[in-house]
């Protein structure tokens, strides 16, 4: 992967910086944004001239398509600063490809690699002071695209806006995570948009997740909507199950997001001799393993939380607490991944890309 | 249903009207908007003071939740002007209730009846000159709500904006409608949001509908995502099948929108002695009926197109053309419905409400 560097993007600099107003030791995830953003509009069937400009609100007509028919996709990635002040991206080509896969499924135009990658690079360079060193610290990068055409008729939009915004984040501590296995609600349909990072997929999960929260569960693990017998993924994370010494995770499908962290952990696990099985995991199998003591760990994997340990799950009103283990695969894999991302350990996979 | 009239809503009038720029004999659906809109914001856990003001773009932060996590719902209804210049709504209580059903499913706050109904009434009164008389002419009303909170974290928003915008429309002529029966793609999951008028449901259909368009089909009739054996609904219409002299339509479910036109046509059909069966209709049954000649009509039912005649369907690469019938149930029901909506025929059902 080359981080294609083309001509310099037109850049309108902010007259002052907000960086001094930010308490970097106390960041709430995704709530603080840097001084600039990257923007490129699509109209008349083509991408217009991209621009980097001060982060600011923009005007939209009340009939803008994204409000009514939901064409909106995004990506989530991170940049890391190493001890030499170099800034690194982690597998940005994966996010770029997935963004366009989402675009196709949502009938939106694909973003050219050059626009995506140069935008990303030049924006990160400009707001580089906002990226802090140290494990856990990162710049969360949010590329997204919305339908900006107008008119209340249920057709694909003619105009779109692609933007990248940056949000500095620090270690994500979610507290204890207990999960509920979905028995009625679902996040995705066969032949639906579950594999796309489409805005509508997230809103669909809020209500059932709220219900789970009220019962004391932080997250829902979704199951297939037809039978609710197969374990799929969590709201913003793929899920791994350790039964004895084997790590299990569902294959990606049109209902499951092809997570970058998931595929990275699979490779990392294999590289350190952990046996990994990518196959459908049945709820019944999980319950059985919990009962007979062979279920050792469950953890979520995603860019935001990296690896998120799950302490127990509930299914059919029975709560299954996981054993407390000293040396977990979750911690082993998380440490290895963060070391590679932060350039503390050699990257033998070619995943890290310098900007 | 009472059209609750409360205190006058604060109204900021447009300094001039755009009405003279509009060619009312040549309206493209949903593309022209009146001079004013109704707006009410939700923040700090409550609905703020509503306002009617000039139709205009508004500012949103790039991290606004609706762009990223898709909390957005809408309604579609119409107002009609009769020969005495009185303006009538059609079953507005149904749209109001459905709006809040959608809100609950999308973890958004319900809109109080008073805000919804007074907003609707006072806005229509103010822009009343835009409503034209005559069958086919109507004011298309678009109430909608979007998440306006900021921050890129996949949680329900704290702030929301509820708006009503108005678009004058004339007779909807869609040309010949051939449909494709979905064999792979789907619009809704069991336990999903198919029954909500949520923005994300529409974007999800664009790509498969584009594929169908390319093969010469204007619309897709969706089937259940688990087996693709049961006929469900079209993109923005419920669907009726006439086999011999019986009208069949699928029961509403968590995958199917509870259409106002659908339930109205069921009642109208029954009132004129047509036998109606609300039950699952199998694709195999439809194909069989098409083959043996008992399939007489298929039509869609929805607020925008009212009743939309379908001339044939394709399934497993076989195209089934419907017979050309003189006196169709579709036309019979459409005429009756439009007569009631336009106050040309007595409304024995109490469906029409004067504003
Ligand atoms: C639904 C869903 N599943 C899984 C993931 C994890 O994907 P990644 O590891 O690429 O961040 C995400 C996103 O972050 C997601 O939104
Ligand atoms: C998915 C869907 N089905 C059916 C309908 C028909 O509903 P109604 O008759 O209330 O307009 C609509 C909307 O108009 C719709 O969006």
UniProtKB/TrEMBL annotation, chains A, B:
It comes from the Bacteria. GO terms for molecular function: branched-chain-amino-acid transaminase activity. Gene3D superfamilies: 3.30.470.10, D-amino Acid Aminotransferase, subunit A, domain 2. NCBIfam families: ilvE_II, PRK13357.1. One of its GO terms (biological process) is amino acid biosynthetic process. It holds the Pfam family Aminotran_4. InterPro entries: Aminotrans_IV (IPR001544), Aminotrans_IV_CS (IPR018300), Aminotransferase-like (IPR036038), B_amino_transII (IPR005786), BCAT-like_C (IPR043132), BCAT-like_N (IPR043131). The modification N6-(pyridoxal phosphate)lysine is found at residue 197. This is Branched-chain-amino-acid aminotransferase. Keywords: Amino-acid biosynthesis, Aminotransferase, Branched-chain amino acid biosynthesis, Pyridoxal phosphate, Transferase. It catalyses: L-leucine + 2-oxoglutarate = 4-methyl-2-oxopentanoate + L-glutamate; L-valine + 2-oxoglutarate = 3-methyl-2-oxobutanoate + L-glutamate; L-isoleucine + 2-oxoglutarate = (S)-3-methyl-2-oxopentanoate + L-glutamate. Its cofactor is pyridoxal 5'-phosphate. The keyword Transferase applies. Its EC number is 2.6.1.42. Belongs to the class-IV pyridoxal-phosphate-dependent aminotransferase family.
């Amino acid at each position: 992967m080359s981080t294609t560097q083309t001509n310099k993007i037109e850049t309108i600099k902010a007259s002052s910086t907000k960086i001094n107003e930010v308490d970097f030791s106390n960041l709430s995830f995704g709530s603080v944004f840097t001084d600039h953003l990257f923007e490129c509009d699509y109209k008349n069937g083509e991408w217009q001239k991209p621009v980097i400009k001060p982060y600011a609100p923009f005007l939209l007509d009340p009939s803008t398509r994204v409000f009514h028919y939901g064409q909106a996709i995004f990506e989530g990635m991170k940049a890391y600063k190493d001890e030499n002040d170099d800034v690194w991206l982690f597998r940005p080509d994966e996010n770029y490809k997935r963004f366009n896969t989402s675009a196709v499924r949502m009938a939106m135009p694909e973003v050219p690699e050059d626009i995506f990658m140069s935008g990303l690079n030049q924006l990160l360079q400009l707001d580089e002071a906002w990226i802090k060193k140290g494990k856990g610290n990162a710049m969360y990068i949010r590329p997204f695209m919305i339908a900006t055409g107008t008119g209340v008729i249920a057709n694909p939009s003619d105009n779109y806006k692609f933007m990248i915004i940056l949000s500095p984040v620090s270690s994500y501590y979610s507290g204890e995570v207990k999960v509920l296995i979905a028995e009625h609600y679902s996040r995705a349909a066969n032949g639906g948009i579950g594999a796309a990072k489409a805005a509508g997929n997230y809103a669909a999960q809020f209500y059932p997740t709220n219900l789970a929260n009220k019962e004391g569960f932080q997250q829902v693990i979704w199951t297939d909507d037809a039978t609710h017998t197969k374990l799929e993924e969590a709201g913003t994370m793929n899920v791994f199950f350790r039964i004895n010494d084997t790590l299990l995770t569902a294959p990606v499908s049109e209902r499951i997001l092809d997570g970058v962290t998931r595929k990275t952990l699979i490779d990392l696990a294999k590289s350190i001799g952990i046996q990994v099985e990518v196959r459908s995991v049945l709820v019944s199998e999980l319950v059985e393993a919990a009962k007979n003591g062979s279920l050792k760990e469950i953890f979520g994997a995603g860019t935001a939380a990296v690896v998120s340990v799950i302490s127990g799950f509930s299914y059919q009103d029975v709560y299954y607490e996981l054993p407390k283990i000293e040396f977990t695969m979750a911690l082993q894999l998380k440490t290895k991944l963060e070391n590679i991302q932060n350039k503390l350990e050699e990257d033998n996979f070619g995943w890290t890309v310098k900007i």
